[in-house]
From TrEMBL:
Residues 131-264 form the GFO/IDH/MocA-like oxidoreductase domain. Residues 4-123 form the Gfo/Idh/MocA-like oxidoreductase N-terminal domain. It comes from the Bacteria. One of its GO terms (molecular function) is nucleotide binding. This is Gfo/Idh/MocA family oxidoreductase. PANTHER family: D-GLUCOSIDE 3-DEHYDROGENASE, UDP-N-ACETYL-2-AMINO-2-DEOXY-D-GLUCURONATE OXIDASE.
Amino acid sequence: MKQINVGIIGCGSITKFRHAPEYKANPHVNEIVFFDRNIERSKALANEFGGRVVETLEEMFEDRTIVAISDCSSNETHHIHSANALLKGKHVLCEKPIAITVEHAEEILEAQRKSGKKLMVDHNQRFTRAHQKAKEIIESKELGEVLTFKTSFGHQGPERWGVNKSNATWFFKKERSHSGVAGDLGIHKIDLIHYLLDDEIVDVHAFHGAFDKVNENGEPIEVCDNVVSALRTKKGRLGTASFSWTYYGSEDNSTTIYCQKGIIKIYHDPTYQLVVEHKNGEVVKYELEAIQTNDNQTNTGVIDAFVESIIHDKEPIVTGKDAVTALKVIEKIIG
């Protein structure tokens, strides 16, 4: 069996809970190499998951045994680290958003074109069984054409998820996060709508603000903690989308697709992750799998898909182009 060594840049929560355990569980991954500006963090993860530590990014980029790299750095450095890794001949899985601006994202795409290596972006909502089943139903046209949609993604905020469990989190800093909840949660659902409907959002009317979150000094955060938007796609579908860091109860990751002959409800019911209500009154319920939440970490399928694209030389399921298309919508949302 072919095996590869992988590197991970950044050793925060996304690495600890998603990338590192999923690489460790993948039979094609031989060794994980960790880098973080805080070397104690990388040492801790190397101890937890088995692997080794490098002290500099140059060491990781120059290591010819490392075939692929996960860029789990904060948003403002993706265009630097991912582009450099590609140009050094590494396949790259970049965390979302691909970059803080479309201009920076294009730098990564240009590096990918020059290098000829794989570039995948971690829009993990495409991989859930409920979303894949919903896409299958939509494509079958058993409910006719899609007319409208609504989608939501919200939880109690990144300070509960971050490695330090603190409101000093980089997610609240304009120069590092850039787009707040829009780039953290919103971009996932924008990519999902593009995927489910095989369409692209072209018109946006949105309101956003920092309503409740404060930083470590007790001041309102510099980025939005809530977004409410109205959207129109290239094919003329209309929809609404809400993203929030202030849902101070259970997480909401639901989507509803309204079609000519019925409704598809995704992640509304904890037992039946997909419910199809037909116009004639028939209801079909699918028990698939619980959505991954910050409190319920399960295998996303992203790492496995990335490794498979390398091993079998296939185009990644989420390309850099897909990620830029979603980022363009986020830029319109935050104005």
